[in-house]
Structure formats: structure tokens, C-alpha cells
Automatic annotation (TrEMBL):
This is Voltage-gated potassium channel regulatory subunit KCNG3. Heterotetramer with KCNB1. Does not form homomultimers. Its main location: membrane. It is found in: Cell membrane; Cytoplasm. GO terms for biological process: action potential; protein homooligomerization; regulation of potassium ion transport. PANTHER family: POTASSIUM VOLTAGE-GATED CHANNEL SUBFAMILY G MEMBER 3, VOLTAGE-GATED POTASSIUM CHANNEL.
Amino acid sequence: MKFGSSFCTLNVGGRRFSCSAELMKRLPLSRLSRLHRCVSESELLELCDDYDRDRNEFFFDRHSEAFSFIMLYVQHGKLRFVPHMCELSFYNEMLYWGLESSDLQPCCQRRLDDRMSDCFVHFFPEEEPRGPREPQSRWLERMRRTFEEPTSSLAAQILASVSVLFVVISMVMLCASTLPDWKTTETLDQHRIIEAVCIGWFTAECIVRFLVSRDKCEFVRRPLNIIDLLAITPYYISVTVTILTGENSQLQRAGVTLRVLRIMRIFWVIKLARHFMGLQTLGLTLRRCYREMVMLLVFICVAMAIFSALAQLLEHGLDLETGNQDYASIPAACWWVIISMTTVGYGDMYPVTVAGRVLGGLCVVSGIVLLALPITFIYHSFVQCYHELKVRSARCTHSLSADFMN
């Protein structure tokens, strides 16, 4: 947008804010930066409520005091809640202007998390405005939602049910193929036919989803799509090797790589994450809590290094001839430390000296404390992710009901 002058006016809720065009271009607020890139007045009106060309003034029917705090964040780099204003309302204003909860100060982030957990709500950023779609674009979008969103329509639900059925059948056949009674020639032939049908369905589904996707590069980078490829590719590699070398060749009989490729079909079970909210919640929680997971891993590794060295010294190092041979090395003692810290205790190795038993008690107590520290953060994130996905599912169900009634 070519502004009439080097300065413009933002009228937010009746309160005016002067802003230079260059500052609008560099603002970290996506709505204002998009406003600067507009080339027509119709595009401007998609981002603001009104526009006065003569005064170069943009009108926004939003909370003026909240916007003043957001402008202070732009100037000083610190964003806090407006006093006496609901945290959820302020967060809604942040999303409107293009900010995220990570822009808040840590104390305000905790207040927002607690508020959202108490109210079981979640806000979603507004989607980018799109112009009128052509019939072909609408058809592609409908196909994409049918394959990507199982609750978006009745056809999507039927397709998801069929896909789940194929996943269950393939898992049952994979497990049954390892039974001795299923290794006869007739049974193997039936298993191959069923496996080929399941792979054909998964391949066709993956190809269609790739063709109707909006961004092909983004489609390839998605974790679930990578898992689909990892689950499908081993079958075609095995078939290719069988055709090239023969079914009873020495490579087929002794090929460890081929057996590993066949067992990789267990990744099919992860395809259920597309259709079950529980698995989606687990994946989203792990993605958002990777820092806590790394912290938990560091705690375990540090404790393992300390207790394994002390255990090796007390049980074996002080008396090399009659010492406990299960603790002959620090790596061997690491196994005892990990099963003790997690309170599993297989009983395959245990300390026999008094000092070793005291160390074992400290190891168990330390494991309970260290493992419990990050669990609270992971639990709150899990609850938030669950309710977020639940809200999305409810919106899709509401849209499905409206389409059915219409």
C-alpha cells in the first residue's frame, strides 16, 4: 500500500495512535505488517474495519487500552497484562494483532496458562483471509478436508473408518505371521494377498492426500506423512528384492535387513493418530514439552553417572577379588541405577554390602523426586493440548451437523 504520507493514524476503539509507514513495516504484529503490503483498498478493508484515505487513518473496532500495552511492548520489548482486564480477553486481542503467548512475560504466561486450564478454553489465531474460490479450488479443498480431517464430513468419517479397519487388519496379520502355525505355504499366500490389499489402500490414500495438499513441501515434512512413507516403503523394497533375487535365494533366507524392513510395518499403528484424539494429544504434548523431556533426560543421566560410579566402587572396587561381580564396571552398574530410579527392580542384580544398600535406597528416593519434578509441567501441557484438540473436534462436529441440516 502506498501511503499518502510518511505517517498514518491507527484509530483503535476511538483512540488514535500515530505511526510511521516504516515502523508499520517493521512491526512484529502480523496484521499491521500485512496492512503495509496491501495494494488496494479492498485488501485494506479485509484487515481493518474502515479506512479514511484523506486523513490516511485506519479504523479498528478493538480494545484501545490493550492495544496501547501492545504498542509499549513494541517500543520496550516487554508485554504484560492490562490491569483489571481478563487474561483471556487480552490474549484474544494479542491473537488479533498477531502475537502469541510466548511474547508475554513469564509471570503473565503462568497466569494465562492457569486461566485457560481453569476455564478449559483455547483460542486459535485467525485464518488468513482468502478470496473467492473457483469451483476446482473448492473441490480440491473438499477433497483435502475429507482425507485430512476425519470429522469434517460424513464421507470423511466413512473414509477414516475404512482406513482404521485396514490398519487393524494389517496389524493382526503382522502379529499372526510370526506364529509357527501360520508359516505354512497356503497361509503365507493368503497373508501376502491381504498384505498387498492393505498396502494398496495405504499407497492410494497417501498419493491422493499428496495430490490435494495445499503445499507439497509442507506435506512431505509432516511427521505423520513421514511415518506413512516409512511404513509403506519397506513392502515395495521387499517385493523388489524378491523379484530380483528370487524367493528362496540365500539373500532372502539370511537377509537381516529384509527382516528389519518387514518389521518396520509396525509403524502402521501410528497411522491411528490421524483418527484418535488420544494419540494426537500425546504427540502434541511431546512436541510442546520437548524442553521438559530433555530436562528429565539430563536429570536421569546425571544421577546415573553419579550412582553408577559409587555403586561400582562400593560393591566391587574396594575388593576386586571377592567383590560383587555384577558391578564389575560402571556401564554394568548403570543398568542397576536405571531400574532402581524408575522403581522397576527386576532383581537380576542387587547390592550385597551395607554401604551399597544404603546407596540403593538413596538412588530409589532420588529417582522418585527427580522424575516427579518435570511431570507437573508435562501434565498441565497434556491437559491443555487435550482441551485444545477437543475444542477443534467440537467445531468440526458442529460444522458437520450444520452441513447435514442444510
